[in-house]
Amino acid sequence: MKNCDKQNLIISIESSIDFIESHLDSADKSIAFILKKHGVRNLEKASIYTLQDLFSELYAIEADLR
């Protein structure tokens, strides 16, 4: 996968996190739990597969909040 694809995925993850934080009171705990569950401390260092799984989970939460 190209580096620009990974960057686009990171941008999408950050966007989902921003949306969740603005619509959910317990966002900090929820997001921290999901990041820990996927073993992510740094989005830039995570594998593309981990980022895809992370985005899928965050986007599902975002979709539920819409």
Structural domain tally: 1
Q: Mean pLDDT, rounded to whole units?
A: 94
Individual helix count: 3
Shape: globular
Report Rg: 11 Å
The tally of strands reads: 0
Structural class: mainly alpha
* Pattern of helices and strands: HHH
Biggest sheet architecture: none
Poorly predicted ranges: none
Percentage of residues assigned to helices: over 70%
The multimeric state of the shown protein is: single chain
Strand content: under 5%
Distance N to C terminus: 30 Å
Q: Can you tag this structure with a few keywords?
A:
mainly alpha, 76% helix, 66 residues
Secondary structure layout:
Elements: H1 3-23, H2 27-37, H3 48-65
Helix pairs in contact: 1-3
Description:
- With 66 residues, this protein is mostly helical.
- It has one domain (3-65).
- It has helices at residues 3-23, 27-37, 48-65.
- The termini are far apart.
- 12% of the residues are buried.
What's the gist of this structure?
With 66 residues, the chain is an all-alpha fold. The protein contains three helices and no strands.
